[in-house]
Design goal:
There is one protein chain. By secondary structure, this protein is α+β, with helices and mostly antiparallel strands. It folds into 2 domains: 107 residues, Glutaredoxin (3-Layer(aba) Sandwich), CATH 3.40.30; 130 residues, Glutathione S-transferase Yfyf (Class Pi), Chain A, domain 2. It is 47% helix and 10% strand. The protein has 9 helices and 6 strands. The protein has a 4-stranded mixed sheet, with helices on one face. Helix 1 runs parallel beside helix 3, helix 1 packs across helix 8 and helix 5 packs parallel to helix 8. It is globular. The mean pLDDT is 92.
Length: 259
């Protein structure tokens, strides 16, 4: 059993960078599911998805109609022949097909918490929004074909002449950064427990669940795009009594790539 995992490459060591695909990578590593990464550049994702009958994961409104968007992560399971996109849908599928009795690693949806964790996932997506404009610099780590695609599509989506014009500056940057800190502080409260003293605790205790993977994926995205030595990442790492650097440190055993 070896799952084929489709990810978007970058110029970084190990290539992995996207918060969406990191959810699946963390999941595969934690669940001990053997996999092989195949890398697909941004402009090739749609053709790949259509070739394998993978439906779009997002529908964006446009001036004339609704525009389907095809995204990664995606997987192919050679044992069943299935192709599947969307990190949560992938996790649900793999949980059913390869439970703990097969992999030896526990579920990320313990105690029938799938519904609650879907709500958590949605809450994180709606809460952590301000930092995304600060991560436009991701374009600098992409390979040429993906960089051109990303600049063209995001410039149109953000309605700016030049992509870098959308990066917050001056007083606007200060206000947005403070808002981002408040957003993370809110999420931090979802992790707190009375038993937490010095050792890092995941949402439900000593073992990560899907909720931890969702937040860790956001964090590793920031760390990789900004750089581990950047002022931005080091500031985030200090927030909330070091909770965010603690979460990534706790998830480090599941952060390997097969590059």
């Amino acid at each position: 059993m070896t799952i084929i995992f489709y990810d978007i490459p970058s110029k970084l060591p190990g290539c992995a960078w996207s918060h969406n695909t990191w959810k699946t990578r963390f999941y595969l590593n934690y669940r001990r599911i053997p996999y092989k990464t195949e890398w697909i550049e941004y402009p090739d994702i749609k053709a790949f998805s259509l070739l394998h009958s993978i439906p779009p994961t997002t529908i964006l409104p446009s001036s004339s109609d609704q525009e389907p968007v095809y995204t990664l992560p995606a997987i192919h399971d050679p044992l069943t022949g299935i192709y599947l996109a969307d990190s949560l849908a992938i996790a649900e599928y793999l949980e059913e097909k390869y439970p703990e009795s097969v992999t030896g690693a526990p579920t990320v949806f313990p105690n029938n918490t799938l519904g609650l964790q879907k709500a958590f996932n949605n809450a994180v997506d709606k809460t952590l929004v301000t930092h995304r404009l600060f991560l436009i610099s991701v374009v600098n780590i992409l390979n040429p074909s993906s960089e051109e695609y990303w600049r063209r599509t995001r410039t149109a989506r953000l309605k700016v002449e030049k992509l870098e014009d959308a990066i917050p500056k001056g007083e606007d940057a200060e206000v947005r950064w403070a808002t981002f800190e408040s957003e993370l502080e809110r999420v931090a409260k979802w992790f707190l427990s009375e038993s937490q003293e010095t050792a890092f605790k995941f949402v439900m205790g000593n073992q990560p669940i899907w909720a931890d993977i969702v937040v860790a994926a956001e964090l590793i995205w920031m760390k990789l795009v900004w750089g581990a030595e950047s002022d931005q990442w080091n500031e985030v790492a200090r927030w909330d009594d070091g909770k965010w650097s603690g979460l990534l440190e706790a998830m480090e055993p599941y952060a390997s790539t097969d590059k």
